[in-house]
Design goal:
There is one protein chain. The chain has one domain (72-332). The chain has 333 residues and is mainly alpha-helical. The protein has helices at 21-24, 28-37, 63-68, 70-85, 94-113, 124-146, 148-151, 153-158, 165-198, 216-240, 244-258, 271-276, 283-293, 301-325, 329-332. The longest helix has 34 residues, at 165-198.
């Protein structure tokens, strides 16, 4: 006689709570998700991949990117200022030697020998010294921005940052020289009443600032943008053609005589040709700056309009060309 197994000791499982072994068994998807979440898994999830591709063709200026790198403008400008005046005997005095020397040239040669006018500005030396301030801002900013990319070639090859920071910060350095020259001009103007009292027979007149002097910062900004509008495309060209760095000083040596630095634009009698003269990038800022400082300087509206329009056009074209060539700087420089 065969004994039956005793099943009375097994607990009774209700029918509604019966466990389906197939349903309870882990599926392949659950196993995959468990292995992914398990830090001890031999196949951790791959990190996200970011693909950086160089821009092609004509690209707009990425203003949000420039804003994220806004601190670099000041950092590069301070670096250039330190390098410029490091281990120099005169230091910032070099910012005064050239405008003072050209003021003497204007007083002796253009006014004394050539008889060029000065729009009845008195004392006359204020006319020539004030003309040097926007000219030096334009000239220095143009030359330094044109060679800024080549000067930072090691950094361009190793680190990414918006290349537009380099020529812009280079022009910002020339603002320091402009502030020094403006401080000297202000000191001379404040000293004129004392000189007139100490030397009553000298004929020196006291300077009275006109109401339009409040627009002087606009003239400075105009000169800054004029230098940047020409310096941007030249800096891109200088990366590929290194002759540009030698051509620029040669051209600016003649431009100072073509610009209204030693003579006023009112010497051009034809109003049409005077307006055409505004196509010279630095003519408008110089004339506008002198009009802001001296009440006797006439307002050349046609010249200003043509000059402002040409500056805007050159700036847009310079930005577009610089942006187009930006992707090749690291390979060519």
């Amino acid at each position: 006689m065969t004994a039956n197994p005793d099943t009375s000791i097994l607990p009774a499982v209700p029918a509604g709570d019966a466990v389906d072994r197939e349903a309870a068994a882990p599926t392949s998807d659950d196993a995959a998700s468990t292995s992914t979440l398990d830090p001890r898994s031999s196949n951790p999830p791959a990190p996200p991949t970011t693909v950086i591709r160089p821009p092609k063709g004509w690209q707009p200026i990425d203003l949000p990117e420039l804003w994220r790198y806004r601190e670099l403008f000041l950092i590069f400008a301070l670096r250039d200022i330190k390098v410029r005046y490091k281990q120099t005997v005169l230091g910032v005095g070099w910012a005064l030697i050239q405008p003072i020397a050209f003021t003497i040239v204007g007083m002796t040669i253009f006014r004394g020998v050539a008889g060029a006018g000065n729009d009845n500005v008195a004392p006359a030396f204020l006319f020539y010294f004030a003309s040097q301030i926007p000219w030096m801002l334009f000239n220095t900013g143009l030359q330094t921005s044109a060679i800024s990319l080549v000067g930072a070639q090691n950094m361009i090859k190793k680190v990414y940052f918006p290349r537009l920071v380099l020529p812009t910060s280079a022009v910002m350095v020339s603002l320091v020289d402009m502030l020094i020259q403006s401080a000297i001009l202000l000191a001379v103007v404040l000293a004129l009443p004392l000189i007139a009292v100490l030397f009553p027979g000298s004929g020196i007149e006291v300077y009275t600032p006109p109401w339009q002097i409040v627009f002087a910062p606009v003239a400075v900004l105009w000169a800054f943008l004029s230098a940047l509008s020409i310096g941007l495309p030249l800096s891109a060209l200088n990366v590929e053609f290194r002759d540009v760095r030698y051509v620029i000083p040669f051209v600016t040596q003649f431009m100072i005589f073509a610009a209204p630095v030693f003579w006023p634009a009112s010497g051009i009698e034809s109003g049409t040709w005077r307006a055409v003269y505004g196509l010279l990038p630095v003519a408008g800022p110089i004339e506008f700056f002198r009009w802001c400082l001296f009440d006797s300087v006439p307002a050349h509206l046609g010249l200003w309009a043509v000059g402002a329009a040409s500056t805007a056009v050159w700036l847009l074209l310079g930005l577009a060309y610089f942006r187009k060539m930006e992707d090749s700087f690291a390979d060519v420089v």
